[in-house]
UniProtKB/TrEMBL annotation:
Protein name: NAD(P)-dependent oxidoreductase
InterPro entries, per database record: Ergot_Alk_Oxidoreductase, NAD(P)-bd_dom_sf, NmrA-like
Residue ranges annotated for the NmrA-like domain, each copy included: 2-246
Organism: Paenibacillus selenitireducens
Annotated SUPFAM superfamilies: NAD(P)-binding Rossmann-fold domains
């Protein structure tokens, strides 16, 4: 039985759908299990149960983990990440879980430090010292995060960033979920650290060109100085400062550390990852 933390997130939701198709028993944890149960029922997921649990309530986690032997751990980034995920790992051990699949981040880089990557590095160390079998998935930029560009693309025919002409790895969250399902259901692929990307890299100017063709009007990418970008994210996008810092840091990392695609998705799943062209076409009407 698989316990799922993050079942309502972008990756976790896709994982639930994949496990339903595979017929694999799982227990999806949520603070609002009624809403999650309704969605699972709508998808025909008789093999997935939704249970009440809160990451800040360790006793509820212990109850939810009891009777499961694997844990999928995907939490939204936050300044409390190290403390919360470390507590979850310890409770999982007490409840008898034997294998944890953790969504992490690209490896921490001294040349261009990203604070959130440092948090994940410390959590990975906790896993390494836990005595459990653990699998770490390190995806690069989510294609789904490009949907955040919609407001300014729609109203101003432009979007902003601090990556210059640097290329970035993108991956569809559904491919991350498919890899998670693979390592949760195939012991031969578990117990590794996997860096996940799509099959191509793209710069923001290239994405602007793709959007221009799809929308049949000129879409421009405007490059900003990092501090200007940070201030805009805080003031205009209403991001908390730590998250604005994170967005700028990962974009700056792309300008310092060249990004190259991996073949991990194809090796694990036996198919090519979803393409950015297909993702943009699919979301054209948003």
């Amino acid at each position: 039985m698989i316990a799922i933390i993050g079942a309502t997130g972008t990756i976790g939701n896709a994982l639930v759908e994949r496990l339903i198709k595979l017929g694999v028993p799982a227990r999806a944890l949520s603070r609002n299990p009624e809403k999650l149960h309704a969605k699972i029922k709508e998808l025909g997921g008789s093999n997935i149960e939704a249970v009440m649990a809160d990451a800040s309530d360790l006793s509820s986690l212990y109850r939810a983990f009891t009777g499961t032997d694997q844990l999928f751990l995907a939490m939204s980034n936050s300044p409390q990440q190290i403390e919360m995920e470390t507590s979850i790992i310890h409770i999982a051990i007490q409840a008898g879980i034997k294998h944890i699949v953790k969504i992490s981040s690209p490896a921490f880089e001294e040349r261009s430090p990203v604070a959130v990557a440092g948090w994940h590095e410390k959590i990975e160390k906790v896993l390494a010292e836990s005595g459990l079998t653990y699998t770490v998935l390190r995806p690069y930029a989510f294609m789904q995060n490009l949907l955040r560009l919609i407001p300014t693309v729609t109203t101003q025919s432009m979007f902003f960033g601090s990556m210059g002409n640097s290329s970035c790895n993108f991956i569809d969250c559904r491919d991350i979920a498919d890899v998670a399902a693979e390592v949760l259901t195939n012991r031969e692929t578990a117990g590794q650290i996997y860096t996940l990307t799509g099959s191509e890299t793209f710069s923001y100017p290239q994405i602007a060109d793709k959007l221009s063709i799809l929308l049949d009007r000129t879409i421009r990418y405007i490059n900003l100085e990092p501090e200007v970008q940070r201030n805009n994210l805080i003031e205009l996008a209403q991001m908390p400062p730590w998250l604005a810092d994170h967005v700028v840091e990962i974009q700056m990392m792309a300008t310092v550390v060249p990004e190259r695609p991996t073949d991990t998705v194809k090796r694990l799943l036996g198919r090519d990852p979803r393409t950015l062209d297909a993702f943009l076409q699919e979301n054209l009407q948003h």
